[in-house]
Every structure is written in C-alpha cells, then in structure tokens.
Design goal:
This is ABC transporter ATP-binding protein. The chain has 9 helices and 10 strands. By secondary structure, the protein is α/β, with parallel strands linked by helices.
C-alpha cells in the first residue's frame, strides 16, 4: 500500500544577503494512513521548517514531498495545520470559530454542520458552543482549535508544538485529550515537540533529528505493553523510561 505521506531525500537552505544557511539535509521518511509520528531534535535544527515544507508553505531545494502520491505545492487543502496558539477569534462564538474553515471554503453543508456539532458535544465543548474564547480555559481553546482543523477532514494533520503555551499540568491533560481525539478520529498526524515524554506518549514512531543542518539520526518505533493506550497511560508503561533514555542519548551524541 502506498504511504499517505512520503518525504524523499529533502534538503533545504535559507538564503539571505549574508549567505546560505543549510537547515535540512537528506530527510527521508514516510507516514501510513492513521499513523501518528513525532519529530524531536535540538532547538533550531529545522523541525518547524520541515513542517512548512510538508504543508507547501516552503519549496524544497532538492527531493520530493508527496501526499497521496502527488507533489505538495502551495496551499494544500489536504493538510491541516495546528499551531502553538489557538488563533480563535474573540468576536465569534466557539461554534462559529469551529466552523470558520468550512465557511471560508464554502462547505457549510447540513452534514458538515452536524459533524462539527457532534465533535463539540463528544469532546466536552457542547455546553460552550455559544461562549466566547476568553470564557474558556487554555485546554478547552486548544480542543476548539483542533475541532476547527478536523472539520475540514484533512488527509494529514501537522501539529507545531501545540501545547507549548500551556502550563505543565494543563499540557499533560490537553495532550491526553488531543492525542485521544486524534486516535479516535483515525487522523494521520505529525507532531513537532521539544518534549521527549510528550513525543513518546503520543506517537507510534519518533523521528530523531540531528543539529542543523538536520538529518535523521534514528526513527524509533514506540511499542508499549499497556492495554487501551492513551498518552497519559503511556507514561506509566514499563518501556517508557527505556525509550526516553534511548532518544535522549541519540539527541546528545556529538558525532
């Protein structure tokens, strides 16, 4: 079966009047339908740049990026992008924020309206449909932002440190909520994070990048011996510490 996403030997450099800054070197991996992968690496190594290339916001200098076998170019409606901030509009209710993407794409059909209402109800926001963003906690706002993104039914969901603005306790709770929602919706997802525990607890595989120009040091499959895995339960798995130590050592190699 053809992978949903293929990143084939991609390299990229930033060019300024001061010269060239290599960011990524020969990045090569793929994602299958329904898979959740996480990307970790040193600060400034090019993790977010890689997401920008996959989304089509930037063009690779060499290599190919394919979504369902087709080259990713420009704005791609098959890709959903969830950022560090929720970017909810205060003058719109939570429901109207969740419908924003569908409204822009002129897809406010009865079926899509029902689907958004069902997600709001299922994921704890049904009672807050008519509230304004300022009336919700940070975690609830992130859930609303995720529903807004999932409403468009993207083939691939990109998450660029979506929990980094939250305090630690809220981050754990929201990561558990959103990770579980993504699994329940069978959404293919790629998460960028600095938090190794977050990566291990949420992902099926962790892609470890080197310092800039980033290359792939290792791809670590995450197999945990716990039933009904959720991000929070994953942290109690007996293998969790071993994966953490493995990835930590890989990140701190100096070769």
């Amino acid at each position: 079966m053809q992978p949903l996403l293929e990143v084939r030997h991609v390299s990229f450099s930033y060019h300024t009047i001061h010269g060239e800054t290599p960011a990524l070197s020969d990045i090569h991996f793929s994602l299958s339908q329904g898979e959740f992968a996480a990307i970790v690496g040193p600060s400034g190594c090019g993790k977010s740049t890689l997401l920008s290339l996959i989304s089509g916001l930037l063009a690779a200098e060499s290599g190919q990026i394919l979504l369902r076998g087709k080259n990713v170019k420009g704005s791609n409606t098959g890709i959903g992008y969830m950022l560090q901030k929720d970017h909810l509009f205060e003058w719109r209710t939570i429901r109207r924020n969740a419908l924003l993407g569908l409204e822009i794409q002129k897809r406010l059909t009865p079926e899509n309206l029902r689907r958004v209402d069902d997600m709001l109800d299922s994921y704890g926001l049904g009672a807050f449909k008519n509230a304004r963003p300022s009336q919700l906690s940070g975690g609830m706002r992130q859930r609303a932002a995720l529903i807004r993104t999932l409403a468009l039914e993207p083939d691939l969901l990109l998450l660029d440190e979506p929990f980094s603005a939250l305090d630690y306790q809220t981050r754990l709770s929201v990561g558990d909520d959103i990770g579980s929602i993504i699994k329940k919706e069978r959404q293919t997802a790629l998460l960028v994070t600095h938090d190794l525990s977050e990566a291990i607890s949420m992902a099926d595989r962790v892609i470890v990048l080197s310092k800039r120009p980033a290359r792939i040091r290792q791809i670590v499959p995450i197999v945990l011996s716990i039933p009904d895995r959720t991000p929070m339960k994953s942290r109690s798995a007996p293998e969790f510490k071993d994966y953490f130590n493995l990835i930590w050592e890989e990140l701190n190699r100096h070769d």
